[in-house]
Predict the 3D structure of the following.
Amino acid sequence: MAEQGEYEKMPEDNLEVRSLTDPDLEQNLLSAASVGIPVLLVDFEKNIPWCPTLQQLMQKETLRGGKTLPSETSSQEISVSSSFQLYLCAKIPLEALEAELDPNMLKRLNVIDLSLSPAALEELLLREVLRSERQEILKHRQALQLRVVQLEAKLEATEEELVELISQPQRSLLEEENFMPMVQLLQTQIQALRATLQHMVSLHQDQVTLCNKYRPVARLGVALHQALLQVGRLHPLYYFPADDFIGRMRQALVCTKRPDLGKQESLDA
């Protein structure tokens, strides 16, 4: 999530990371706002009262710059730089955040959702399942996918070369000695590339079909993660990040291959 002031000049490689739990947050925000240093405020989802400076900075009128903030350490007010930027970072899902925060405040924010979509999570879980069960299929699919991308790029470059050759502002192209042979050569290359690309796409689709046989396991994992997200709405402490979930699933897949390892982990726990 980001709440921004008017942009003048963003300091390069100069970002302060502060936590909502920071006891010196008030003074740090005042200092950063006065000189225009952007601040990334983490732990925003925690149920902690906001300091007065943060409350004022959450108003767009303050962030536009030129406004003043009272200072706790001196009797003078501090002017907010117009280049000051305030970014708010929360780990809980956007749906849970909407339930926790005032809707009027959310309207004043530019929200960027960096969480994984269910479809993206499904692909990551499918990769973990294949890495555990059929690693050769995963490697072959990735190799074919890379080959398809390379062929598409080469085909595009060859087509552009042909267009560029034809569109050259020269004297009559038909009078050029090497023009027609070059055109025929490029056309032959394009036809060959298209045929090879079509064949590779077909092979890749065959591998995708094989991979999809394991997709129900990945979909089951997504459903489980969605259920855990609902539990996370009860309190931020119950939030289960996608990275941790993928790691736990990876451990479970390893344990299915090595039951003795699963017993050892249970004893260690």
Remarks:
- The beta strands are 2-4, 16-19, 39-42, 68-70, 77-79, 85-88.
